[in-house]
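Input chain follows. Return structure tokens only.
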Amino acid sequence: MSAASTETSAPLPTAGSRVFFQGAPGVGCVGSGPITGDDPVQKRQGKVTVKYDRKELRKRLVLEEWIIEQLSDLYDCEEEEMPEVEIDIDDLLEVTSDDDRAIKLQESLIDCYKPTGDFVRDLLARIRGMRKLSAPTKKGL
């Protein structure tokens, strides 16, 4: 029997079971045990939850990983050795025209000795249709 099959041979939880997380002593939320109606701290925590558009966040993460890969190619180095290059997607999305966005990107890449035109063109195509990530708001406070 392989190690992979022994890991999956454990019984699966039933549909009615719940998963609980227990933090280390002295770490985490105030109080322990089940949430009761008498505990205002526990109630407030539920109201401070922030919802994010997961699809948009995933797109942003994929784009940022692509940017790092492209910059590594442009600068011929690993991410740790790369010079400080700041490309802020939200700032680019605030700019109204692709020409102005391209100028802003070229200014960020001024120290790059390789041609950056393809990178700029591809990045502008990738951000087209994306939305600026707004600061999360706390509801119910």
